[in-house]
Amino acid sequence: MHENKETTNPHQSSINSCVEPKYSPSRFSIAPMLDWTDRHCRYFLRQLSSQTLLYTEMVTTGAIIHGKGDYLAYSEDEHPIALQLGGSDPAALAQCAKLAEARGYDEINLNVGCPSDRVQNGMFGACLMADAQRVADCIKAMRDVVSIPVTVKTRIGIDEQDSYEFLCDFIGTVAGKGECEMFIIHARKAWLSGLSPKENREIPPLDYPRVYQLKRDFPHLTMAINGGIKTLEEAKLHLEHMDGVMVGREAYQNPGLLTAVDREIFAIDSPEVDTVAAVRAMYPYIERELANGTYLGHVTRHMLGLFQGIPGARQWRRYLSENAHKPGAGIAVVEHALSLVADKR
């Protein structure tokens, strides 16, 4: 287990070592996104905000227990970091939670929100909303074996089970019998059949007032809101009602959003992060990864949206997209792509 959960990256602000954070990391977090929030993505996002809570992609209990790879791998520089688990067997989840705590994760989160067919076939994700007692059993099993927070990410309903009473019963059961103290609520229902995961992020209407009401009815619980949040101004409005805000695809497609988070959301007295400096802060990490056999494009694909709205952003994206996957591609490729933006700033 790591001893120090503070980042040691010299390129970041020194605020971690000299200022006691005013707010919990859950005040602003980046959603777990399959195939997107891998360890390379998280390391990059950490260059842009030292306070934001980062979530892993969902990792199934089967992969952790039976898989051949190290599905819990991450860099110490990623803290604060939460592991999202997919599963529905309390014993398996407890085993994985113990392993994750031993590896130094700051939080364990149970996925009760993903609507994909593959996830449903494994009996986890959004379909678990129909079995609140099982979710409670899963959370309780994990809480009994770890001391770090165990949280739930869920929807506001599934299929025809989308009444406010259904949502309150679910939260009440998981909080009461499962002793769950924190929920991240995606403010859309999920259709378990008929819609793709992408459509489930767009077609069911957002219902922020329902999530606000849930927080009012469960004031003793910590609750964050997720879904459709695109700006820090929107995040601030939500924080007038909620304990936290989770941002998903907007933060991935426009990561420059994070450069002002520490100051605007966490009230840390620090300058806005310089995006060019953030890219160069990635160079030592990229060099290490290249030496370990990682292709440059596996890292830089997460950086393509950084300069959105800035002259040269298109050239930056195009040059990296066309060259980062070539054999032998290294730091010189990134530096050249950066010059296409930096020379115009």
TrEMBL record:
Catalytic activity: 5,6-dihydrouridine(20) in tRNA + NADP(+) = uridine(20) in tRNA + NADPH + H(+); 5,6-dihydrouridine(20a) in tRNA + NAD(+) = uridine(20a) in tRNA + NADH + H(+); 5,6-dihydrouridine(20a) in tRNA + NADP(+) = uridine(20a) in tRNA + NADPH + H(+); 5,6-dihydrouridine(20) in tRNA + NAD(+) = uridine(20) in tRNA + NADH + H(+)
InterPro entries: Aldolase_TIM (IPR013785), DUS-like_FMN-bd (IPR035587), DUS_fam (IPR001269), DusA (IPR004653), tRNA_hU_synthase_CS (IPR018517)
Domain of life of the organism encoding this protein: Bacteria
EC number assigned by the record: 1.3.1.91
Biological function: Catalyzes the synthesis of 5,6-dihydrouridine (D), a modified base found in the D-loop of most tRNAs, via the reduction of the C5-C6 double bond in target uridines. Specifically modifies U20 and U20a in tRNAs.
Protein family (similarity comment): Belongs to the Dus family. DusA subfamily. Belongs to the dus family.
Protein name per Swiss-Prot or TrEMBL: tRNA-dihydrouridine(20/20a) synthase
